[in-house]
Amino acid sequence: MKKLKVLFVTSEIAPWVKTGGLGDVCGALPQALRELGVDVRLLVPYYPALAQAFPSAKRVAEVSDLGGQLPAVTLRQATTASGLPLLLLDCPPLFMRPGNPYLDADGSDWPDNAIRYGLLSRVAALLGSDANPLPWQAQLIHCHDWQTALAPAYLKYLGGTHSARAATLITVHNLAFQGLFGATLLAELGLPPQAWQIDGVEYYGHLSFLKAGLQHADWITSVSPTYASEIQTDAEGMGLAGLLRWRSERLSGILNGIDDDLWNPATDPHLPAHYVAGNLQGKAANKLALQRRMGLAENASMPLLGVVSRLTEQKGLDLLPPLAAEIAALPAQLAVLGSGSRELEDAFRNMAQTHPGQFATQIGFDEGLAHLIEAGADMFLMPSRFEPCGLNQMYSLRYGTPPIVRRTGGLADSVIDCIPATLASGTANGFAFAAPTEDALLTAIERAVLAWREPAIWRQLQHNGMNRDWSWQVPAQQYADLYRRLAAG
C-alpha cells in the first residue's frame, strides 16, 4: 500500500522556533506519524534559527506569480537528525528576522504578518494542487492555527481542478488568536473578490485567517476533546462558536501527547537524580536540588508547589498572589518560573521577598530549571481559566508530580481528581477544581497538601500518573486514521 502523503504546515517547530505548545506539537507529532508509515513533510519558514541549523538546505524550487503582492520564494529541503523531511520557505525580507517569529523587538506584531503568513499558506496550497512545482504532491494538508489557516481558502478559490486538490485539516491550538487584518489585504494576498463574503474569509468587516480555515477546511480538530466542546459555546467560542456549531459534524478533539524521550525522569539530563515509578527515591534528591537552586529552605517535610508558565490571567496565575499568606500558613513552599505581564511578575517577586526561604520566583525561562521543577516539586499548579490542551500537566504526571488544575480543556481530559471513588478505581492522578476563584484554588491546594501527608495515597497518585502512556503514539494513530478518511474523500 502506498504511503499517504501529508504536508504539515506550521509557523513553529521545536526546538528551533517555539513560542508555546504549537512548536512542541509540530516538532513531535510528524515524527510519530512517520513511525506509523505516513509520508509527512513539514513546511515552515526559513527563519534564522533554521538557517543556522540547516545552512546547506538544498534548493528544490523557485516559486513566483503567487498573486497579489506575495513575493517570489525559494523552497529548500533538509532533513532533521530524526529523519523528518523539512521544506523550508526561503524569503529573507519576510522571515530572516531576529527573535520571536511574530513580534518585533518592542513586542509589537510585525506590520506585515498578514503577507508573511499569507505567503506560507499560499505555498502550502500550491503544494496540494496540480500546480505543485515538486515531484512530491500532498494528498492532505494539515494546517495549524491562524498562521496557516488561509491554505484551505486558497485551495478553494485558486487550487486548480477539484480532483487534484489535497484534502485539508486545520488544528486549533488556541482559538483566542485569530489573525485579524484589514479588508484591503484581500487583494494584496491574491484572493479573489468572491472570497469576501460571510461564508468566505470576511469576519465582521475584517479578514480573518482563522475563520477562513474553519470555514473551508474539510475537517477541524482541537487539541483536546473537552476544548472541542468548549469552543462551540458562546462563553468560550471567541466569537466563532456559531460557525463551529454549524461545522460540529466535522469537528473533533484529539488530546496532544508529549515527547516521552525528552520528558523522561529515568533519563532526563537536566536532573541530578533519575527515578522511575517503581522507585521514586530520586525525587527527594531533585527536591533538595530545586530548593538549593531557588534559595528555598532545605526542608523535606514541607510540600513544594511548582509553577512553570506564562504569567497571565489566562493561566489563572493572578489567583495565586492573593493566597500567599494562606499558602505560607499551610505551610508549603512555592517555586515559580515564568514571565508575562509586568503586574504579575512584580506580584510574584513580592511574594518571594515577603516570604524568603518559602517562596521563590525566577522571571524568564530556563529549560533545565523547568525540568527540575517538574521533577523536584511535590505538586504542580495549573489554575488556567482556559487551556486548549496544556502540556505541563502531562509532564508533571510523567514525573510523579500530581498536578492541581482547573477543570477545563485538556486539563479536564488528563487530570482525574483525587476523590474516594477515583482512588478506589485506581484512576486518580491529581486534583481538579471548577470555579476560577481564589477560594476554589485554595481548597484544591489544601486537599492536595492533606493527601501529600498520606504516603500511601500520594504514592498511588504518583504511580497512576507515571504508568499511563502520555506519548504521541495514541494521538498519532488517531490523526493517521483521520487523514486516511479525509484523503479517501
Defining key terms:
489 residues; alpha/beta; Rossmann fold; 2 domains; 9-stranded mixed sheet; 19 helices; 18 strands; 36% helix
Concise overview:
The chain contains 19 helices and 18 strands. It is an alpha/beta fold and 489 residues long.
| Total number of distinct structural domains | 2
Distance between the termini: 17 Å
What is the 3D form? Answer: elongated
Helix count, DSSP H or I runs of 4 or more residues: 19
Q: Give the averaged pLDDT, no decimals.
A: 96
The helix fraction, in percent, is 25-40%
Looking at how many chains there are and whether they match, the oligomeric state comes to: single chain
Low-confidence residue ranges: none
Enter the CATH topology name of the largest domain.
Answer: Rossmann fold
* Radius of gyration, in angstroms, nearest whole number: 23 Å
Main sheet overview: 9 strands, mixed
Tell me, what is the CATH class of the largest domain?
Answer: Alpha Beta
Write the CATH architecture name of the largest domain.
3-Layer(aba) Sandwich
Major β-sheet strand ordering: 3-4-5-2-1-6-7-11-12
CATH superfamily of the largest domain: Glycogen Phosphorylase B
